[in-house]
Specification:
4 helices, Jelly Rolls, globular, four-stranded antiparallel β-sheet, alpha+beta
C-alpha cells in the first residue's frame, strides 16, 4: 500500500478508505491510481484486466455468466449493468463490454460544466478511442484543445495529460474504447 500511495500521490489513508468501501474515489483519484497500477480506469473499476483475469480489489458487482458453448451470445440489460458515479462531479461511467471482451467499451455521461483531468501515465499502456454520441466534448490533449460534436471521434496518441470537459449547459454522452498496448 505504501508503494501505491507513493506512485499515485494518493494518501495511504485514502487508499485504505476506498479499499474498505468507506469512501468513493473521484475520477481524478481513479486516474492517478489506475496510472500507478498500470490499469485502465475501466480495468480498475471492473476488477479485471482487458481480455482476461481478475485484478486484486473490489469490482462493482458480479458479472453475468459467460455465453454458452457453441457461440451463443448474451443480453445484458441496462438496468443490470454496473456503473460508477464520481461523487464530486456526477460524472457517470457504465461498462458496455464485459471483462472477458478483448476491448473495454465504456459509456460516459459528463454533466454540464464539468472537467475531468487524467495524468499522462494513465495512457502509457493503452490505446484509446473516444466517440461522442450527444452533446459537446472539449478534449484537451496535452496543450491541444479539441471541441468534439456528436458523431466525432478522437483516437488518442502518445501519452500526455488529458482533460475531458463539458463547457455547455447540456449533458455530454460519449463512448470510450480501450485496448491494452503490447508491451513486448
Amino acid at each position: 500500500m505504501d508503494r501505491l500511495a507513493e506512485a499515485s500521490g494518493v494518501s495511504r489513508a485514502m487508499i485504505s478508505k476506498i479499499e474498505r468501501g468507506e469512501s468513493s474515489p473521484t475520477a481524478v483519484l481513479l486516474g492517478r491510481l489506475s496510472a500507478a497500477l498500470e490499469l485502465s480506469v475501466s480495468e480498475l473499476l471492473t476488477g479485471a484486466r482487458l481480455g482476461g483475469g481478475p485484478v486484486d480489489g473490489p469490482g462493482p458487482g458480479p458479472e453475468p455468466p459467460p455465453p454458452e458453448a457453441g457461440g451463443a451470445g448474451r443480453v445484458r440489460r441496462v438496468a443490470d449493468a454496473p456503473h460508477w458515479r464520481d461523487p464530486d462531479t456526477g460524472y457517470l461511467r457504465r461498462p458496455i463490454s464485459t471483462p472477458g471482451f478483448p476491448a473495454a467499451v465504456t459509456e460516459v455521461m459528463l454533466p454540464p460544466r464539468t472537467r475531468v483531468p487524467y495524468p499522462a501515465a494513465a495512457y502509457a499502456f493503452i490505446a484509446q478511442l473516444v466517440w461522442v454520441l450527444s452533446g459537446q466534448l472539449t478534449l484537451t490533449d496535452g496543450t491541444e484543445r479539441h471541441v468534439l460534436e456528436a458523431g466525432d471521434t478522437f483516437e488518442l496518441g502518445q501519452p500526455r495529460p488529458r482533460e475531458f470537459g463539458n463547457e455547455t449547459d447540456a449533458d455530454c454522452r460519449y463512448v470510450v474504447v480501450v485496448t491494452r498496448k503490447s508491451t513486448a
